[in-house]
Write a structure and sequence with these properties.
Elements: E1 11-12, E2 19-20, E3 24-29, E4 37-41, H1 55-58
Antiparallel strand pairs: 1-2, 3-4
Length: 66
């Protein structure tokens, strides 16, 4: 299969539900058991969504916080 162009990823946008061949990663869903999954948006909707949080920062506790 030499010379064939690589296939571009195709995903559905989480905001507008349209199919895009230029997906932008906007979130990662983690599971306690089993695999998690990635959430994608089209380039037009991606700036409207909040940034992906850092999972290592979500679990940190700071002095004085309960």
């Amino acid at each position: 299969m030499s010379g064939a162009a690589p296939r571009r990823p195709v995903r559905m946008c989480v905001r507008c539900d349209r199919i895009t061949d230029s997906p932008v990663l906007v979130s990662v869903v983690h599971q306690n058991s089993g695999p998690g999954w990635s959430v994608y948006a089209c380039p037009g909707c991606a700036p409207c969504l909040p940034p992906v949080p850092d999972v290592f920062e979500l679990g940190e506790r700071h002095p004085g916080e309960e």
